[in-house]
Amino acid sequence: MMSDDTASRSPGKALERLDSAVIGQRASNQLSDEALQSFAAQYGTEMQIAPDRALPAYGGQGFRLGLVKSGILLATIELPNDRRQVLCLYCPGNLIFADAFARNEGAKFKAVGEVTILGLNDQSFCNAQAQAPGALAMLLSEATRHINDLMLHSAAIGRLRSEERLATFFLELALRIAQPARDAASFEFRMRRDDIADYLSMNRDTLSRSMSQFRRDGVISFVNPNFVIVQWKALSDRTPLAAAMLEWHRNT
Amino acid sequence: MMSDDTASRSPGKALERLDSAVIGQRASNQLSDEALQSFAAQYGTEMQIAPDRALPAYGGQGFRLGLVKSGILLATIELPNDRRQVLCLYCPGNLIFADAFARNEGAKFKAVGEVTILGLNDQSFCNAQAQAPGALAMLLSEATRHINDLMLHSAAIGRLRSEERLATFFLELALRIAQPARDAASFEFRMRRDDIADYLSMNRDTLSRSMSQFRRDGVISFVNPNFVIVQWKALSDRTPLAAAMLEWHRNT
DNA sequence: CGGCGACTTGACAGCGATCAACACCGGTGG
DNA sequence: CCACCGGTGTTGATCGCTGTCAAGTCGCCG
């Protein structure tokens, strides 16, 4: 262990690079984002999911691959004893690799707000693969990004205290869907407490307590029930994963 | 909730299909396994990692993609306060998507036993991609499998009690690396307590207690420190994820 | 008004983390 | 040969975070 090891991992240092990071990232990813969207638009079919509606992973119009156009989709799995886990969040631009996930018992998708996705079923995926072989590289890089997100999330739910997890959650949302500004970020926020709690592997009551604490401390503030403002610095100070998340997002 | 919902998820029912499942699965996957291996053998370079050696994800001879030939590799991430998380296990035949994982702060790979991998760096990956474009589909399907494993593991560490997690762990190992037999499975087992504990997001002491309990109950038994025998039924009864894991493995 | 769902908050209990002591083993050097 | 040591694993005692239960608030709607 060298001393600069911990230093390079401190939230403060990573935070200095935030402005250029978050803003630059959007530009650099524009290319692959657009390519993915035009790919999905060409071969996929648009589907709507109403707010709070859950659809069994293989129910209804099954799809193998989906691109989220708007809204946030949750992948959930239900276990015996009323236990449920939200496995990941799909934000606009994210790809859903439904064929793997869907085979699990108790797996469902749930919409936060009104969700629109472009879905490819087995057949249209094969078509796409034949006609646009180059697209596979794009899908692979999306899968890789997804793998990393899942890994970081595992670390969060496995090793962080409840308030650290909550800070990680808001930081993640801020990085993924907010309009970033210098000190704060604001975004629409319609997730239910149960869903947040299940995403962070904690109890709804405990979550509520932590959120109240954050509100008291001014880390987050609600302008109305569906819109939140978060403070970059305060959040980063409260999660050990801040450096990793910011660094990762800068490079993506 | 329909009554057959819980029934179809019960370990017992899934267990009935185990024999044909585990044995059939090996055969059906033989094809893509072989393809993946010949692909990696052609474009990758062989690397050895000594037992218990950790290598920083981007240190030494960096690789972007790796196929595990023998041994087990752990992806780990270190957090402040001596917290560490083992994010996933790579068993022989598994692909390592190192380019995503490697960018994280504190990320390392650690070898369990002697590990051999076939690594592709950026350049050889580009070569491979140009010369064998069909291989991408194979990589994508491996990535998809990996995504599912990570999701199930998230559910395990997020929502299961410590003994349930341990049962899940042994069941996972048995499915992935054991020579299956009717009632029991046996396999080489060299992972350290610290690594298991960090994989399951629990304390080493707690893990030790749970393992002692399993030994007392005859769920697992050691023939020597490096070789273990596990009982299918006893394990399945102790984890709510048994059905999902068996079902998934049967279809893979 | 009454009922309902989403959320909050307090009191309490329990699981698992923490700390400490101890057993065991292979290596090393007197 | 034995004493010493560090690494690994086990086990008991204790503590605290967070799950559980219960009551209460608020907004919405029939």
Features:
DNA-binding; 252 residues; 4-stranded antiparallel beta sheet; homodimer; 11 helices; 6-stranded antiparallel beta sheet; disordered N terminus
Question: Care to describe what's here?
Answer:
Two copies of one chain form a homodimer. Chain A has 252 residues and is of the alpha+beta class. The first copy, chain A, contains eleven helices and ten strands. Chain A has helices at 3-9, 11-16, 18-43, 98-101, 122-131, 135-159, 162-177, 193-199, 204-217, 232-237, 242-251; strands at residues 45-49, 54-56, 65-79, 83-90, 95-97, 107-120, 179-180, 184-188, 220-224, 227-231. In chain A, strands 1, 2, 3, 4, 5 and 6 form a six-stranded antiparallel sheet that branches. A four-stranded antiparallel sheet of chain A has the order 7-8-10-9. The model of chain A is unreliable at 1-28 (pLDDT under 50). Chains A and B meet through helix 1, strand 3, strand 4, helix 4 and helix 6 of A and helix 1, strand 3, strand 4, helix 4 and helix 6 of B. Chain A binds a DNA duplex (30 and 30 nucleotides) through residues 161-162, 192-194, 202-206, 208-209, 211-212.
What is the gist of this entry?
The structure is a homodimer of 252-residue chains. The first copy, chain A, has 252 residues and is α+β, with helices and mostly antiparallel strands.
SSE layout:
The structure is a homodimer of 252-residue chains.
Chain A lengths: L2 H7 L1 H6 L1 H26 L1 E5 L4 E3 L8 E15 L3 E8 L4 E3 H4 L5 E14 L1 H10 L3 H25 L2 H16 L1 E2 L3 E5 L4 H7 L4 H14 L2 E5 L2 E5 H6 L4 H10 L1
Antiparallel strand pairs in A: 1-6, 2-6, 3-4, 3-5, 3-6, 7-8, 8-10, 9-10
Helix pairs in contact in A: 3-11, 7-11, 8-9
The structure holds a DNA duplex (30 and 30 nucleotides).
